[in-house]
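Continued from yesterday's entry.
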Amino acid sequence: MDLKENVIVAIKGPKFVKFDKAKIDTELGIVTYLDCFGIRVGVAICEVIDGKYPDISRIIPKENKPVSEIGFNASYLADIEKAAKIYNPKYQSIKIKPNGNDNAATVELNKKTFVIVMPTRI
């Protein structure tokens, strides 16, 4: 199924880290984990939490302002690490694009997936 809009999805069940691609079917509520050959290596249950994102275009940074120092809540960064393992199981690298030390930063997990993180005061 091709999604016509963005949705928030919760994945439940065992966490798989050795896979190359995850196919999420929101109609059936199933996540299928595939290896590099397209062979299923695991499954999990998923559910749509919210039918639509809020208007995220308002909070996505349009600029990239360099900073000399920025603070983030460490637990948010731990959650980003978990997401990076799902989207990039082999190399959990991310790209952080700060937008000053008091505006939201963009954290890219891959070319199509990103997270918005608000900095904290240091």
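--- second protein ---
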Amino acid sequence: MRALRRVIGWLVAIIALAAALFLIWAMMSGRPQDLPWTPLDLGEPIGLSTGRKLAALGSDFGQCRALLDRAGVRYTTLPVRREGAHCGYADGVRFTAGGARRIGFAPAALGIACPVAAALAMWEWNVVQPAAQRHFGKRVTRIDHFGSFNCRRIYGRDSGTWSEHATADAIDVAGFRLADGTRITVVGDWRDTAARSAFLREVRDGACTLFATTLSPDYNAAHRDHLHLDQANRGTLGWRACR
């Protein structure tokens, strides 16, 4: 028992030392976005704590809207929607033209939960556009998607856990359109030519730093034609999945 207490004491000391070193590093590196207690700023680069801060916006619609406003993102607030006991949203928004975002969505009538909108904006600025420039030398002008809100359970089953789509906390991204008209699709290019496949995997990996769940064709056959991105708030521990 005494030996066990010594081991636990050493583990606690090591964890405390690691936390102190991380704090010193984050403060000296001038990266407030790495610290869990600093305010979220959508205009800052992605940090170690950005994803959890974005997910936490699910409990503060007003703060989420304020962050979009501060970042220059144009949007409209959607009416509260309720469908039965498990479906609907009270924090829905829809992007509008102009502002800090220069990218469109097809179909255009995309209603999403505000934390998803905030994460999509950061994904475009920090991940999608830089990756498109690296691989193709062109900007992405449009994201093609299969929708967001859908009152259903996971995989459309008759029972079990409700999908994040049931509360508009998810979006399924099908592909991207470049400035020259080139279309890149998940179903056609995930395992195709080097540049297209590399681009899709890079934007998938980048999404993992911003969304609570990111699922791709590498996860299972049900995701062979899209990237599932959701921003469910899974509590303070910020459980995340990236496949």
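The chain has a mean pLDDT of 89. The chain has one domain: 48-242. Will compare against the first tomorrow.
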